[in-house]
Write a structure and sequence with these properties.
This protein has about 375 residues and is α/β, with parallel strands linked by helices. The protein is about 35% helix and about 25% strand. The protein has 13 helices and 17 strands. Strands 2-3-1-4-10-11 form a six-stranded mixed beta sheet, sandwiched between helices. Strands 12, 13, 14, 15, 16 and 17 form a six-stranded mixed beta sheet that branches. The longest helix has 25 residues. It is globular, with a radius of gyration of 24 Å. The structure holds guanosine-5'-triphosphate and magnesium ion.
């Protein structure tokens, strides 16, 4: 049996096995096996097509957004409206890749937007240009779905495609720790509220070759999330939904769009309604992108030059310490650092003296005091 046939057979067996407590461990094992075989098949295809897997896309700016949508929904129009794409395109090495980048400048941050048109045509099963396009999506910090106001159900196809390609949206990486041991088999410790049977967890781990190990689950996971947690090639990132061409609808139709969004699990309040062509709603969209990326602005107080409010240092909510600021500043600050002074939202009082692990917030003013 070829690899593809094996995959088909396992998928069929999973589909035909009713899920309940007595079949849970068996399904767990099947899903673990399935994930492994799919990865193997993908690696074979990558090798066959000369792709080699490690496709590197250069990142520019403070953060990257992948713009994902069906043909003709208005991706290029939006990119041109938001960025300086036309003038910048030549500067990037995307000639062999069907990806169009542009730089959005907003609140002092440089946000790279990537128009990835080939996702739907090429992605299924990783053929054609799909894999390269997906590697671009996988390295992004945010996925922005762009939907046509008359076809918002496209969202399902798009998110399915990303899921199949190991992109996990709007969810944290599952918290689980696995430590190999020398004897005693697989020992499972679970936090309160974990529904999976110990036996299921063991079966899944055995499928991945563990014989002796200590496993701790700190949160409730289903089988798919457990498999995700054990495979190290899943990427986790936030996503937002923008609905384009709203200039074409009359106000009555909006309720219908809202209902459709709701049906797909999208709160219409969270969707961003725009017209890329008429440049409507774009200010809201920019702000939502900025917020979703968790970007924060740090105004540097430079000795003798005052506070620079024009070009803030951009950090993210996850990497927002003084240490992170030093790293981003580069140069010799790091070695010569004595302390910092902070004024603003994160400071208890103006000019608060802080150390390296102080966590900065949006619009803090930061002064580094260094040794001479
Ligand atoms: N009425 C209206 N038309 C729009 C809007 N945005 C884009 N269009 C039109 O929709 C068509 C497709 O727009 P593109 O920007 O080329 O779409 P795309 O998503 O880049 O398409 P592909 O590159 O083929 O994937 C063009 O004729 C645009 O003028 C909008 O907000 N309102
Ligand atoms: Mg286009």
């Amino acid at each position: 049996m070829g690899l593809q046939e094996e995959i088909d057979a396992i998928e069929e067996e999973i589909a035909n096995t009713p899920y309940n407590k007595s079949t849970e461990a068996h399904i767990g094992r099947l899903k673990a096996k399935l994930a492994e075989k799919k990865d193997k098949l993908e690696r074979q295809q990558a090798a066959g097509s000369g792709g080699g897997g490690g496709y590197a896309v250069e990142k520019h700016g403070d953060a990257t957004v992948a713009l994902v949508g069906f043909p003709s929904v208005g991706k290029s129009t939006l990119l041109n409206a938001l960025t300086n794409a036309e003038s910048e395109t030549g500067a990037y090495e995307f000639t062999t890749l069907n990806v169009h980048p542009g730089m959005l400048q907003y609140k002092g941050a440089n946000i790279q937007l990537m128009d990835v048109p080939g996702l739907i045509e090429g992605a299924a099963g990783g053929r054609g240009g799909g894999r390269e396009v997906l590697s671009v999506v996988r390295t992004a910090d945010l996925v922005l779905f762009l939907l046509d106001v008359f076809e918002v159900d496209q969202y399902e196809r798009l998110s399915e495609e990303l899921y199949k390609n190991k992109v996990r949206l709007d969810t944290e990486k599952p918290r689980i720790s696995v430590t190999k041991s020398h004897k005693g088999g697989i020992k499972v410790t679970t936090a309160d509220g974990v529904d999976l049977d110990e036996n299921t967890i063991k079966e899944v781990l055995r499928e991945y070759g563990y014989v002796n190990a200590d496993v701790t689950l700190r949160q409730n996971l289903d089988i798919d999330q457990l498999v995700d947690a054990l495979m190290d090639n899943r990427v986790y990132m936030p996503s937002r939904v923008a609905v384009n061409k709203v200039d074409l609808i009359n106000p009555d139709y909006k309720a219908e769009v809202d209902a459709e969004l709701q049906e797909m699990g999208i709160d219409p309040e969270d969707a961003i309604f725009i017209s890329a062509e008429k440049e409507k709603g774009l200010d809201v969209l920019k702000e939502e992108i900025f917020q979703s990326l968790g970007l924060i602005r740090i105004y540097m107080d430079k000795p003798g030059r005052g506070v620079d409010y024009e070009e803030p240092l951009i950090l993210t909510e996850g990497e927002n310490t003084v240490d992170d600021a030093l790293a981003k500043l580069g140069g010799s600050f790091d070695d010569r650092f004595r302390f910092a002074r902070v004024t603003g939202p994160s400071a208890k009082h103006d000019e608060q003296q802080v150390g390296r692990d102080h966590e900065l917030e949006d619009e803090d003013v930061l002064r580094i005091v260094a040794q001479r």
